[in-house]
């Protein structure tokens, strides 16, 4: 018997066994079973009443069907559990009773199961609900290319992209324009929940601007036919279409992603802690390069949450809060605490870290049985900013992470990682998230991105004006110093001086920060823009309910969204370069110092022609050495980990006011 929770894990209430030798064949018997927990045998956990009929499988008596029908009539919210194994003679049910219990009953089992077997199963069941591993393994899919796809456009070509689906997990590839033989070279990771495997549904589409996309073809990958810990090259012909897809599929062992109670703490167990520290020690730096680190999150409680439900004659306000913990594509949930604005969850979540620059997102929702959950608050915490073992109260933010909403959440987080692996993974492509909502056109967002790009361009323009003023001798001392510096640099210039100059800039900014002369300022301009955008989003949501004129302007909207996104990318690039030298993320700035030092030494001792020769040989032979390698640019991958100014504002931790009065905060109605 379990307590049904809205999240992924139900709470164990108790278990019992039924001795079939005490039953008479073909005779219905009422049985009362006392529930026990094998770990606490003295505790009285209540009882359940069963009406049991034991009959041979081949007879399938009508009484069984009548019992099932009467049970269905007596339970208003009766439904059959999805994903339960279908076995002859076994009936699995989920019943929403007043106490929200889940009852599983097996009406026919093999006759050779004895008392000890039932006890073993009960013990294993209770252990499972103290610490549960959420999935069995990881499926890594590399989409290489398509061959001879069907032409869907008038020009005899297509703009193909691919959608993947495994259960609830979805991915979408990039669009390759005007080709029938697209090259994607993209990688996606899926969680494998079933021991026996699963089926990945793959569909290929042709992108059409302003109208519905055209279907090109489909195929399926049956994971149960593939051996584990081995990479399989698959050429999948497309059904209902033409051509084929080339894939690389790898099944690997499960990542250590678990949910448990506070009593089961991996880092407090000395043996487990030593194993984790050994796994990520410097001696293991070249073992399993994708396993960068270990994250443990204790979700303890929340206080003074927003009231989302108004019930009763006196308008009594409460919420039914539950918590969602996300790290990249790993998404776990706590149980729901009903009718409580100060819930206590006391759950521990553990994750494998594949990228130390990931951001942990913790979101609190209000559960609604008849509609989607209401948003109550959210925090985003970069892993590199976490202080191990410290229980902190995080002020909840709004959806855009730009300002506070009601309530605080208490978390205790520990991060253990291997710095060498983390540095190497920084230069690898960033993990792509599941398919997200497509960007919609927003006037405020367009203005914000234009403003951000304008600020980056103004830096270059101001630098040009400064150089021009030196040429015009507006300030004779400054122009004289610039002239002497120009003569010295040009006369003595060597290529190694370029990374050396960048290295000196990093060192100078570090000196300013250490000496307390930090010239970095909190970007109020970006924050104001984000708040304006949030207000406009609220207006857009209301307007979209009344009028749907945006739906009629797909083509114009797509062009505007593209411009909006390009502005965002260009502005983000400039901001990330600035934040690298501003020591916004010290780990990345130190990594840049190491890289620039190495480049300086190489350029100083090795002639340029040899460096270019090695670079060219590597580029020309890369496809010969690794035909299916995913193309990447290490510099762009590095910069993708540096937060833009918008992300700096979103990840900024709000300080809890000494006189914490949630009612005085800006109220963000869910």
Please specify the SSE layout and strand pairing.
Elements: E1 2-3, E2 11-12, E3 28-34, E4 47-53, H1 62-74, E5 101-102, H2 115-128, E6 131-133, E7 137-147, E8 160-166, E9 169-172, E10 183-192, E11 199-206, E12 214-222, E13 231-237, E14 244-253, E15 258-261, H3 270-279, E16 293-303, E17 309-311, E18 316-318, E19 321-327, E20 330-333, E21 344-353, E22 359-366, E23 374-382, E24 391-397, E25 404-417, H4 419-426, H5 443-471, H6 476-492, H7 497-514, H8 524-546, H9 554-581, H10 586-605, H11 608-625, H12 634-640, H13 645-651
Antiparallel strand pairs: 1-2, 1-5, 3-4, 6-15, 7-10, 7-14, 8-9, 8-11, 11-12, 13-14, 15-21, 16-21, 16-25, 17-18, 19-20, 19-22, 22-23, 24-25
Helix pairs in contact: 5-8, 5-9, 7-10
GO molecular function, one term: calcium ion binding
Protein name: MCTP1 protein
Pfam family, one: PRT_C
Measured between the Cα atoms of the first and last residue, the distance is 34 Å
How would you describe the shape? globular
Number of helices: 13
The oligomerization state is single chain
Name the strands of the widest sheet in spatial order.
6-15-21-16-25-24
Task: Find the count of extended strands (DSSP E, 2+ residues).
Answer: 25
Helix-strand category? alpha+beta
Low-confidence stretches: 59-131, 544-548, 660-670
The description of the largest β-sheet is: 6 strands, antiparallel
CATH topology of the domain at 270-310 and 317-426: Immunoglobulin-like
Q: Give me the CATH superfamily of the domain at 270-310 and 317-426.
A: C2 domain
GO molecular function: calcium ion binding
Organism: Aramus guarauna (Limpkin)
Protein name: MCTP1 protein
Family: Belongs to the MCTP family.
């Amino acid at each position: 018997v379990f307590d049904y929770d809205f999240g992924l894990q139900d709470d164990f209430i108790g278990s019992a066994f039924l001795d079939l030798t005490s039953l008479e064949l073909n005779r219905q018997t009422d049985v009362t079973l006392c529930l026990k927990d094998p770990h606490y045998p003295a505790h009285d956990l209540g009882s359940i009443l069963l009406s049991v009929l034991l009959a041979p499988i081949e007879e399938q008596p009508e009484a069984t069907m009548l019992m099932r029908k009467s049970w269905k009539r007596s339970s208003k919210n009766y439904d059959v559990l999805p994903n339960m194994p279908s076995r002859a003679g076994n009936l699995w049910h989920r019943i929403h009773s007043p106490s929200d219990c889940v009852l599983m009953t097996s009406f026919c089992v093999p006759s050779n199961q004895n008392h000890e077997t039932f006890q073993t199963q009960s013990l294993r069941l209770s252990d499972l609900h103290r610490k549960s591993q959420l999935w069995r393994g990881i499926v890594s899919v590399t989409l290489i290319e398509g061959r001879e796809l069907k032409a869907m456009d008038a020009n005899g070509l297509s703009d193909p992209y691919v959608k993947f689906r495994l259960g609830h997990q979805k991915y979408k590839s990039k669009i390759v324009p005007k080709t029938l033989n697209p090259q994607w070279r993209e990688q996606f990771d899926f969680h494998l929940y079933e021991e026996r495997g699963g089926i990945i549904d793959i569909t290929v589409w042709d992108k059409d601007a302003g109208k519905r996309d055209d279907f090109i073809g489909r195929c399926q990958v049956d994971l149960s036919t593939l051996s584990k810990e081995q990479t399989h090259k698959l050429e999948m012909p497309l059904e209902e279409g033409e051509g084929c897809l080339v894939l690389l599929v790898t099944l690997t062992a499960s990542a250590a992603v678990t949910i448990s109670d506070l009593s089961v703490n991996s880092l407090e167990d000395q043996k487990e802690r030593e194993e984790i520290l050994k796994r990520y020690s410097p001696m293991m730096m070249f073992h399993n390069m994708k396993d960068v680190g270990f994250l443990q999150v204790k979700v303890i409680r929340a206080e003074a949450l927003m009231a989302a439900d108004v019930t009763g004659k006196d308008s009594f306000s409460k919420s039914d809060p539950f918590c969602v913990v996300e790290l990249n594509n790993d998404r776990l949930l706590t149980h729901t605490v009903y009718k409580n604005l100060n819930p206590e969850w006391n759950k521990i979540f553990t994750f494998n870290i594949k990228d130390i620059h990931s951001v942990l997102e913790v979101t609190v929702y209000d559960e609604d049985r008849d509609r989607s959950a209401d948003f109550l608050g959210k925090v985003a915490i970069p892993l590199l900013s976490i202080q191990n073992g410290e229980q902190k109260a995080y002020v909840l933010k709004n959806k855009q992470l730009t300002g506070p909403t009601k309530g605080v959440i208490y978390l205790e987080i520990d991060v253990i990682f291997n710095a060498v692996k983390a540095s190497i993974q920084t230069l690898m492509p960033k993990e792509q998230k599941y398919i997200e909502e497509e960007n919609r056109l927003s006037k405020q967002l367009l203005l914000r991105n234009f403003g951000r790009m304008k600020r980056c361009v103004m830096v270059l323009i101001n630098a040009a004006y400064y150089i021009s003023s030196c040429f015009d001798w507006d300030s004779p001392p400054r122009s004289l110093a610039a002239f002497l510096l120009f003569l010295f640099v040009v006369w003595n210039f060597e290529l190694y001086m370029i990374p050396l100059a960048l290295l000196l800039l990093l060192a100078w900014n570090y000196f300013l920060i250490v000496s307390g002369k930090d010239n970095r300022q909190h970007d109020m301009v970006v924050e104001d823009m984000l708040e304006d955008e949030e207000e406009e989003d609220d207006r857009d949501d209301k307007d979209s309910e009344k009028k749907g004129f945006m739906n009629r302007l797909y083509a114009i909207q797509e062009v505007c969204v593209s411009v909006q996104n390009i502005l965002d990318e260009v502005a983000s690039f400039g901001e990330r370069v600035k934040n690298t030298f501003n020591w916004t993320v010290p780990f990345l700035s130190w990594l840049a110092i190491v890289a620039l030092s190495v480049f300086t030494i190489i350029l100083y001792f090795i002639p340029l022609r040899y460096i270019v020769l090695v670079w060219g040989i590597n580029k020309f032979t890369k496809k010969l050495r690794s035909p299916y390698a995913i193309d990447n640019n290490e510099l762009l991958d590095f910069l993708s980990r540096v937060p833009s100014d918008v992300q700096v504002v979103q990840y900024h931790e709000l300080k809890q006011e000494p006189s914490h009065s949630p009612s005085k905060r800006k109220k963000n109605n869910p």
